[in-house]
Specification:
alpha/beta; three-stranded mixed β-sheet; 6 helices; about 40% helix; about 25% strand
Length: about 170
């Protein structure tokens, strides 16, 4: 693992972008033949917005790999202190996770639009006012959320989708 600009030493970017990505650690590279996509996996202790991820991807493609016949994707994995609870991680990364979930899965986007999200006892509970997904879709969404959190934070969590339960919450 190396710092981002040690790997991409020839990449010149504007100051604001440089400050956002200079502390990233390049963890690995994956290439998907089927999708014709290079995935750059990086670690970060700070939030890197989707907008900044797209911008750095654009800069790498245009300045270093312009003639390449594949797309590029930055996959950020977050390093959180080992003693943090799920509630602490959720408080810091909630907006980022919700954005990622909504971008990646249309069913989850529909669910989150209607749901309350409760985080406690090492669980993420997504409480919907009514059942809007089938049992198969429920399991698909549950697995997707658990996998995303596990991948992004290297933590195992449990996700539950509930229907019309009474929890004292804020709607996000």
């Amino acid at each position: 693992m190396k710092k981002f600009f040690e790997v991409f030493s020839e990449l010149n970017v504007y100051d604001k972008l440089r400050k956002q990505v200079e502390n990233l650690i390049t963890k690995s590279f994956e290439f998907s033949e089927r999708q014709k996509k290079l995935i750059i996996i990086v670690q970060s202790t700070k939030i890197l917005s989707h907008k900044m991820q797209k911008e750095i991807t654009k800069q790498i493609k245009s300045r270093l790999l312009a003639s390449a016949d594949f797309s590029i994707h930055i996959d950020v994995r977050y390093v959180i202190p080992a003693d943090w609870t799920l509630e602490e991680a959720w408080a810091k990364y909630k907006d980022l996770l919700i954005e990622e979930l909504q971008r990646k899965n249309f069913r989850i986007k529909a669910i989150l639009r209607e749901a309350d999200i409760i985080v406690r006892d090492n669980k993420i509970i997504i409480n919907m006012p009514q059942k809007i997904v089938s049992d198969r879709q429920y399991n698909e969404c549950k697995t997707y959320i658990e996998d995303l959190f596990g991948k992004k934070f290297d933590r195992k969590i449990v996700c539950e989708l509930t229907f019309n339960q009474s929890y004292r919450t804020n709607n996000f």
